[in-house]
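Batch queue: ligand-bound targets. Current item pairs a single chain with copper (II) ion. No template structures supplied; prediction is de novo from sequence plus SMILES. Inputs echoed for audit trail.
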Amino acid sequence: MKALKLTCILIFFISCTGHSLDNNRSYQIPVSPKESIPFNTRLKIPDLLENKGKGKNNAVFELTVKKGTTEFFNKVPVITYGYNGSILGPTIRVRRGQTVTINVKNRLNEYTTVHWHGMLLPAEMDGGPHQPIAPGKNWKPVFKVNQPAATLWYHPHGLGTTAIQVYKGLAGMIILDDTNSDKLNLPKKYGIDDIPLIIQDKRFTSDGVPLYLTYMRDIMEGMKGDTVLVNGIINPYLDIKNTKYRFRLLNGSNARIYNFRLSSGKPFYIIATDCGLLEKPVKMKNLVMSPGERAEIIIDFSSYSKGDTLYLKSYDFRIIQFRINKMKNTGTSVPSALADISFLKKSDSIKNRIFQLEGVGHHVSINRKQMNINRIDEYMKINKTETWIVSSSTRGMMGMMGRMHGGGNMFHNFHAHGVHFQIIGRNGRPPLPLEKGWKDTILLEENEEVKILTKFLYKGIFMYHCHILEHEDNGMMGQFRVD
Ligand SMILES: [Cu+2]
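Prediction returned. C-alpha cells below.
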C-alpha cells in the first residue's frame, strides 16, 4: 500500500512537470469522486496574512513559495505547492493609501513569479514573466495601493509555467478595503459572514492523485477537471445563520467556466466584480465566471429555517453545501447604492486598438502572433484613454479541430495587467448592469466582440493574455509598453 501511494505521488509529479501529452498511461484511470464524497468536510478559510508593518500606512507581508503535501481524499498524500503552507495561500488584506511591501521567498526547486492580479502598480512590481524569482532567491516588491476596494488575487505568472504551478496549488486571495467599503452596511467579518471562496477544478485517479493534461481535449481547451474544490476542499460545507452573507468568489481554475446558482433557485445580489463594487447591487439567479474573474455576492438566507441545507451549484456540480443551523434573522437589506464609479469617456479615447483572439491548443494567438518576450506588440501613452476592440474567433481549421475534439463551447477570455477597463459594448449592444463595474478579465464566447475603454496609469511593460492558463502558456499573450 505504501509503495502504491508513493507511485501515485510520482505519477502526479511526472504528469505535472511535462507539457507533453501522454495518452499511453492507461493505468491512470480518472474517476469523479465528486458524487461519492459526502459534504462532511468543513470549509477551510485561508488565514489572514499577518501585517508586520508599522503605522497604518505601511503594510509588510512575508510570503514563502514552497512545496508540501496535501491529502485530497482517500488519505493519499500528494505533492502540492503553496504560499506559507502546502496548498493555496493566506489572504492578503490591504487598504487604499497603504504602501505595501511583500517579502517573497522562492523555496521551490524551480523558478516562479508572484503576480498581483488586478492590482494597479508599476510594471516592475507586477510579478509577470519579467520578474522571475530563481530557486532559493527572494523578491521584494513595494507599491502604493491606489484603487477602490475590491477582491483581487495572486498567482504565479512564469513564461510557460503558469498553468502547472497554479494547478499544483499556487493561488491566494487579496482583499482591498477603502473608506467607502468601510462604511457600507455589508457583511465584513472575515471568515464569519464575509467568506472567501477560491473555486478550482481537478481530475483525480481513484487513488486520490490529481492528473494533469491527460486528454487531447485538455490541450485544446485547457485543463478542466471533473471535481470542483473550494479553498482546496472537495465537497465542503459551511454552517451559517439565516441572515445575509457575503461571498468573495474567485474562479481560480485553469480553464473552467462556472455558471453559479443556488440549488433553491432563489436569486442573490452581485455587489462587486473584478476590480470593485458596482454602483448598485444586481439581483440575479445565476452568475457566469471565467478563469481569473472575481465577484462578490450577497446571499440572503433569512427565508430559510434551521435545519435547511442548500448548495451553490454550477451546471451539474454541487460546489458547497450551506447548512442553516442558527437563527439570527436581523433584517437583511442590501445597500441600494454601493460606490461611485468614474466612467471613462468615449470622447477621450485617442485610438481604437484591436485584439483578435484565435485558435485552440498550440495554435492559439492574439492578432495572429504568439508570445515573444523580446518583442513589444503595442505601444501606449501614459494617462491616455483608448478603445480596445477584443474579439474571439474560431473560424477556420483550428476552430473546426477544436469542435472535433469535443469542443463546441470554444471560448477565450482576455486579461490585461497594469490597467482596469470598462465595457462599453458587447456584440453591438450596451453593457448589462452586471458588466458596468471596473474589470480586468472578460469572457469572450465564440465569435463575440467586446469594446472596452481603458486608461494607462503606470509606465512599463505589461502583459495581455487569455486567462485560460494552458492557452496563455501556449503563447496566447502579448506585451504592451506604456511611456
Ligand atoms: Cu484562450
